[in-house]
Amino acid sequence: MTRKSDTGPGASTADRAASLKTIRSQIDKIDLQILELINKRAQLATQIGQVKQEQGGDIFSPAREEEVLRNVLSANQGPMPEVSLRAIFREIMSGSRSLQRVSKVAFLGPTYSFSHLAALQRFGESAEYMEVATIAAVFEEVNRRHVDFGVVPLENSTDGRVADSLDMFVRLPQIKICSEVRLRVHHNLLANCEQIEIRRIYSKAQALSQCRNWLSRNVPHASLHEVTSTADAVLLAQKEPHAAAVASRQAAIHYGIRILYPNIEDSPHNETRFAIIGTRSSERTGNDKTAVMFQISHSPGALADVLTVFKQNKINLTWIESFPYQSAKGEYVFFVDFEGHMDDAKVKRALNSLQDQCYKLTILGSYPIAQPTD
């Protein structure tokens, strides 16, 4: 007589309980093995930190961390999804880094704003975070060496450039971009009242813009009010009757407010790109970007001549923005990022040519190309 499976449809309750206990016992043993390996890894990371300190190197290495993630993800055969593995290894690296030295990171607050979420995405929970009120303050904290790094928004998929960040690069050209975070932005309608009772909706201007069509269809009776951050919007929605906020799921969880509707952004490709700023560029990975800003003569064809340099060197531009130069009326600063690292031969040639074409050229840094993350 064939024995029925311990977990199959015909298995008894006792058989299923015994099978469950066996599987859980196996998981417990594996957990202890994982713990042992994580601590062995941390010991090796500490040794690397000691070598870096002797050589004057940086504890945070975006190039190396991208390499670690690339190795892990390329070897993954499932069933663990990529997003979970990224989160697990981000925290392993964050904890290992903190054993060497705790990184201090400034971000545009309050906590659980999208800038805060981008900072957590890059540095994990083991960093020391400083919440500041403006983008300018993030740059100043980095410039004064009060923190090691800052997180600032560069551009978003609906409204384009973030002018305050570009303005601060002009003011403090010594600040470098050492990494980037591309965050898929999902907005949620949060409120402690019902949809029909909402009379006011608070959020940051960009968030309201990114959800404008959804809001006009689903809460046409509510007025829209701009505030300095999505996290501030949640605090207002908590305090005021008949108020709602457009903010992240993490903000809803942190501040204890209901999610009435998730993912209300109008575009499924909603994304914001953040720059990690510091005092040094990142090492070469072979999959990098370089960012520069430059000024050119106010004459016909000057910009075309500059862009020809990239074409001649077969360098792909990934972003270009013009920005008014406040010190000279009618003059502009151009921001460009492109594929390649400043140590690549063809990038070096292009930068040398640009030095001749522009009357001012600033290299803002080279850094690993990031993939969009949730």
Task: Give an overview of the whole structure.
- With 374 residues, the protein is α/β, with parallel strands linked by helices.
- It has 3 domains: 24-100, Chorismate Mutase Domain, subunit A (Up-down Bundle); 104-184 and 272-373, Alpha-Beta Plaits (2-Layer Sandwich); 188-269, D-Maltodextrin-Binding Protein, domain 2.
- It is built from 12 helices and 16 strands.
- It has helices at 13-55, 62-75, 82-100, 114-123, 135-143, 163-171, 205-210, 212-218, 230-239, 249-255, 302-312, 345-357, and strands at residues 104-108, 128-132, 149-156, 160-161, 176-184, 188-191, 200-203, 223-226, 243-247, 259-261, 271-278, 288-295, 317-324, 332-339, 360-368, 372-373.
- The strands form 3 sheets. Strands 1, 2, 3, 4, 5, 11 and 16 form a 7-stranded mixed beta sheet that branches. A 5-stranded mixed beta sheet has the order 8-7-9-6-10. Strands 13-14-12-15 form a 4-stranded antiparallel beta sheet.
- Helix 1 crosses helix 3, helix 2 (62-75) runs antiparallel to helix 3 and helix 11 (302-312) packs antiparallel against helix 12.
- The mean pLDDT is 89.
Radius of gyration: 25 Å
- Summing up helix and strand content along with how strands pair, one would put the structural category as alpha/beta
Within CATH, the superfamily of the largest domain carries the name ACT domain
Please give the domain count: 3
The main β sheet shows up as:
7 strands, mixed
